[in-house]
Amino acid sequence: MSTEACTVAEENRVAADGALQPEEVLALVPQQPPFRFIDEIIELDPEHIVAQYVFPEDADFYRGHFPGRPITPGVILIEAMAQAGVVAFGIYLYALEFSAQEVESMLTVFTDASVDFSGQVLPGDRVTTTGRLKFFRRKK
Description:
This protein has helices at about 5-15, 20-30, 75-95, 100-105; strands at about 40-45, 50-55, 125-130. By secondary structure, it is of the alpha+beta class. It starts with a helix and ends in an 8-residue tail after the last strand.
């Protein structure tokens, strides 16, 4: 089977089971550049998500956090985690259970986090975020 035929066969399999492709999920994330902190979804299935983002050296928040020695604010790192682990993963799970069309009317809200930071994220650093399914019920 040719590469092109494999690609078409794979697309048909995914379409048949209702799963969105990572690129489709990324396009449905309501946060978009410059406030989307996901460049790429590396892995995605009903149990987990792995996403990556490179913090650009010219991001506006580095000008004031901190001049001459910029670091990525913790609140931005929490936003990156929420976008991957709650929003993008939630979109994927929601589309599996309901439909991709319904996703556009969905509102995602992130309400709680307990985070320990073990180091600094500097301009230009690539961050990998991993989320695992804890529960998904009643559209949440």
